[in-house]
Design goal:
This protein is of the alpha/beta class and about 550 residues long. Helices cover about 50% and strands about 5% of the residues. α4 packs parallel to α6 and α10 runs parallel beside α13.
């Protein structure tokens, strides 16, 4: 920066003016944040992801440096003499540049430390020129927004200063600037984005694939005999009811008798209200004699209404097709957008469906009703967990639940993790004696201290899943799951840095579904098989059949 200021005649005027306006302390702090952003986190990054992360990290560091400089001067702390300041500045600049070059040199190696764990081919370069260019653009855009905020603040404070004391005027000016920016972000940009997304995803949900014909089997939901219209199922619902193993698939795997699995789905447009959709789900279950099966799974979909085939298909093999599954859609938006737009809708739907199904299930003789299980992935896991509380089921509990990739906001998951046995890691806790709750990842299930009790709950989670292990507290402290020993899919090169680690995990969340199968937020059928075996304990099942089933899904 000082070189540019000394050679103004050799650079464009706008470059000289821009660099002259920058805070030296801010630039140095931002450089350190930029360097830290190159270190590995939970998932591999593309150069675009890295560039966006580095640009935001540079901006955050710059802002912290500017604020620290202002605060130092504001509280009146002494400053060293100008000559000493110069030497300190030179030393700090040299140190920051050295750190940046060291981190840049190691960037591709750090990414490969993650890619190797996930069995991905190594990268030869970190595309540093592209990363630097895009990061600089991001920094300039965010700096412009920050300066616009400051300009609005100063303008408002100057107007208030005519009538009230200066300090009060500054507070009032800041409140005005915050109110204006929040109104623009929440009232204009976010709502506009939400309307556009709502329209787009509604069209996607309504789209019927040309090759998807109306089911001819009257037992299938959406058929002419069904209480649920084909068009009202939505795209995810149509995929669900027409997917899964066929009778021929099951017969090819099993030697003995099999049945065709029952899949019931009620789309968002199948009825007007949550209660009506829940009642429709029960009516459809009764129509197809779902309560005559040995197993009934109450599945809560993700925000888009999707149910993971990697979870639903294997369990139908495990029980020879003698199984029924039911799900009710509550949104067609992605999970994060569904949470922002209607945060309680998923939990309300899960409670209504559970109330209807569980109410009928408890009215049946205990020896003539199916084993009842709950399931959900991601946001579906959190909402499924909220479907019932202990007081609803304590007199007559359901048999168990499998919740995979529980989001970090899941209160029950968080409480159980915090109460884990002290010697167990946060990424694979052991809760009490393991008779009620167990955790599972890619490894074979561990032996618990006690046998299963009357209800079996399994959390399937990967240590590399940022949806599960994101923490806002990583802004200022190291998360427990970063302590050693670490999960088998977490790089040993990962380090905690204030602010930057939280930004890294936030970027990881956006890419969680792009991870290879068996890592991140993409759960593999083989791991679901082990988890379902723990939860449902299918009769007459052998280890040899487990290996055959895993090989089938691996193909």
């Amino acid at each position: 920066m000082r070189f540019i200021l000394r050679h103004r005649d050799k650079v464009p005027d706008w470059v000289a003016r821009f660099t002259a306006s920058l805070s030296v302390i801010g630039v140095l702090t931002g450089t350190l944040f930029f360097a830290a952003s190159l270190t590995p986190s939970l998932l591999p990054r593309t150069y675009v992801m890295q560039a966006l992360l580095s640009g935001v990290s540079l901006s955050a560091g710059y802002g912290i440096g500017v604020f620290a400089s202002w605060l130092w001067a504001y509280v009146g702390l002494p400053s060293p003499p100008a000559r000493i300041q110069r030497y300190i500045l030179y030393a700090a600049s040299a140190l920051c540049v050295a750190v940046a070059f060291t981190f840049l040199w190691q960037a591709s190696g750090w990414q490969n430390s993650v890619r190797e764990l996930m069995e991905l081919p190594p990268v030869d370069t970190a595309h540093l020129v592209r990363v630097g260019g895009i990061a600089f653009i991001v920094f300039v855009v965010l700096l412009a927004i920050a300066r616009l905020f400051h300009l609005l603040f100063r303008f408002s404070a100057a107007r208030f200063d005519r009538f009230i004391p200066a300090h009060v005027a500054n507070v009032a000016g800041a409140l005005v600037a915050i109110a204006v920016f929040w109104s623009v972000l929440d009232g204009v940009l976010f709502r506009y984005l939400l309307r556009m997304s709502d329209t787009a995803y509604a069209q996607v949900d309504a789209w019927i694939e040309p090759e998807q014909a109306l089911p001819s089997d009257p037992v299938q939901t959406g058929s002419s005999a069904s209480f649920v219209h084909w068009e009202g199922l939505g795209r995810r619902g149509r995929d669900f009811v027409t997917g899964g193993p066929t009778l021929e698939d099951l017969e090819a795997f099993h030697d003995g008798p099999v049945m065709k699995p029952i899949r019931v789905y009620v789309g968002l447009n199948s009825a007007e209200t949550i209660e009506e959709r829940a009642e429709l789900a029960l009516a459809e279950l009764l129509r197809v004699d779902a309560f005559e099966r040995s197993v009934l799974i109450l599945a809560t979909p993700t925000g888009t209404g999707w149910l993971d085939p990697s979870a639903m298909n294997p369990v139908e093999y495990l029980h020879r097709g003698d199984i029924a599954s039911v799900a009710v859609q509550y949104s067609y938006l992605p999970s994060w957008m569904s949470l922002l737009a209607e945060p309680d809708l998923g939990a309300q739907t899960a409670r209504a469906v559970f109330r209807e199904v569980y109410g009928h299930w408890t009215s049946l003789p205990r020896d003539r009703r199916p084993a009842l299980y709950l399931h959900g992935l991601s946001l579906g896991a959190m909402n499924s967990d909220l479907a019932a509380d202990l007081y609803d089921i304590i007199a007559d509990p359901f048999q168990g639940a499998l919740w995979s990739g529980p989001p970090f906001r899941s209160s029950s998951w968080r409480a159980i993790t915090d109460m884990r046995q002290s010697e167990s890691p946060a990424w694979l806790p052991r809760f009490r004696d393991g008779s009620i709750v167990r955790f599972k990842n890619q490894s074979p299930p561990e032996l618990a201290d006690a046998e299963w009790g009357p209800i079996r709950i399994v959390f399937l989670q990967y240590a590399s899943d940022p949806i599960t292990f994101f923490e806002t507290e990583s802004f200022y402290r190291q998360p427990d799951w970063m302590q050693y020993p670490r999960g088998p899919d977490v790089s040993a090169e990962l380090r905690w840095y204030p602010v930057v680690t939280m930004l890294q995990l936030a970027v990881d969340m956006g890419a969680a579904d792009t991870a290879p199968m068996g890592y991140g937020h993409v759960y593999a059928p083989s791991h679901y098989i082990d988890a379902w075996l723990e939860v449902t304990d299918p009769p007459d099942w052998t280890d040899a059949m487990t290996e055959r089933l895993k090989m089938l899904f691996a193909r």
